[in-house]
Amino acid sequence: MAAYTPETKCSFCPGSKCCTYVTQRIPGPRSKRDFEELLWQVSHRGVEVYKDDDGWFLLFDSPCEHLQADGRCGIYARRPFVCREYSNDYCEFDAPPEEGFELYFRSYEELLAYCRRRFRHWPV
After folding, report:
1. HSE of 3 in the Cβ direction (CA atoms, 13 Å)?
2. For a surface tag, which of 48, 61, 105, 117 has the fewest beta carbons within 10 Å of its beta carbon?
3. What is the rounded CA–CA span in Å between residue 28 and residue 36?
């Protein structure tokens, strides 16, 4: 495999991983009601929840509409600022983001099991 640089690294990434999801910071859940809302959110296809050193996030599994079949950006020259400022110094190509998650819930069942452990009187 040829060596890559920050300028060419993205071309080596199968599936352009960073362009296949969106995350949104959310307030850290504390109450049963907060967790009930998270249960509702992860009940939707393509929605996951995780907690890492930066806090709690919703993750939406939804590829960018400008991602081309070859993994390149179809609007690269006029891509949004958030894409322009993204640094690939250490990214999904280097290690899966899940490795840094303290908590990770991919489904209703996973989050429900956590709620039952966390709250003494969680409804069955």
Report:
1. 1
2. 117
3. 13
pLDDT given for residue 55 in this prediction: 97
- Per the CB < 8 A criterion, the answer to whether 93 and 17 are in contact is yes
Decide: 6 and 91 in contact? Cβ < 8 Å: no
pTM given for the model: 0.85
- Residue where the block lists tokens 């400008």: 66
| Residue 108 DSSP class | H
Phi, then psi, of 22 in degrees rounded to 5: -130, 140
Burial of 88 (0-12, 13-18, 19+ CB in 10 A): middle
Within a 10 A sphere around the Cβ of 119, how many other Cβ atoms? 12
Q: Cα–Cα distance between 7 and 37 in angstroms, integer?
A: 41
State residue 54's pLDDT score. Answer: 94
Whether residue 58 contacts residue 49, with contact meaning beta carbons closer than 8 Å, is answered with yes
Domains of the chain, by residue range, sit at 17-118
Higher pLDDT, 55 or 89: 55
DSSP 76: G
pLDDT band at 29; cut points 50, 70, 90: very high
